[in-house]
Amino acid sequence: MLAAFSSRQRIGFAVVAATTAVGGALHYARVDGTVVFPIVTVALAGLAWLVALGTDALGEHFGPGLTGVLQSTLGNLPERFVVIFALSAGEVVVAQTSIIGSLFANALLVLGLVIVAGASASKDRVMRFSRRLPNDTATLLLLAVFIIVLLGLAVSAGDRASRHVTAISAAGAVVLLIVYGTWLWSYLRADRRDEAAPEQAVGRRGPGLSLGAALTLLAVAGVAAAFVSDWFVAALNPAMAALHLSKAFAGLVVVAIAGNAVENVAGIALARKGKMDDAVSVVKNSVAQIAVFLFPLLVLVSLLFAHHLTFVLEPVYIGALLLTAIAVWQVSGDGEATIPEGAALIGTYLILALLTFFE
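User: That's the sequence. What structure does it adopt?
Assistant: Structure tokens below.
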């Protein structure tokens, strides 16, 4: 498989393997987190680069829809592990902030960076892509926000429903998963019908890997990213204490950005190469998965633990989620985006990060 890559890329493989091995050894040797943190951060970024390569290679065999679904599924493995570990330790707040932090990071920061990269790579400075996925993602995101807003209002009012937030969250999670499954089935079927179109085949020049080799590369890099993310989180508290940063800022900003390094690197790399549908698919599928698959799935998984995860959030984050859904639809719903629109999404995320810094 390595023969399909350039000598520079092979050196990159060696660096990723070395930093991952060193980070793991230091973690299990219980070395101070301030030492482990920078090493595992480099390892996580390197694994994100590997996933970007695998996604690029996979795009030679499938349409952007399935490519984005597979990439975002593997890319969200760190979030799954972090939340499950947090729930088992009774850290419900950490679990919630990890999920919504990933949602904000993907929908605002990563999408904004991808739009800036894609528009910069276009001759007329306008990034163009299929309109269906952005509109579908906005619809799914609004559906998830709907139950979050309703529960938030019920809890604020102290009505009868507020006494049954766990049951309502579990039932709502089942509804969200059914809707996501229905959407995913129709989306992938439409993608298979479209992938033979000439415009979809243009520009696919990723590494010459077989389907099996591309899937293997993605699977190995995704699983390794999950382990490295666990080491990253373990080293986070000492590092944040040394930097005098709050846990809220660490969960909603630092962990979210590091956990979504895969989407950052993969989406930007695809956009710079002119693969606009692939780039948008990577980000949008991740947003949809977090909102109506990962979040509700973990709500149901939490029923196995003593502490339950629900859709009840702090009012400030409920408002931020609602405005994020509207912003995502407004910027990308017409199938076109410009550099100022991407910058606006990035600016929105920076404002949210500033607020969490003072939380």
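Residues 198-205 have pLDDT under 50 and may be disordered.
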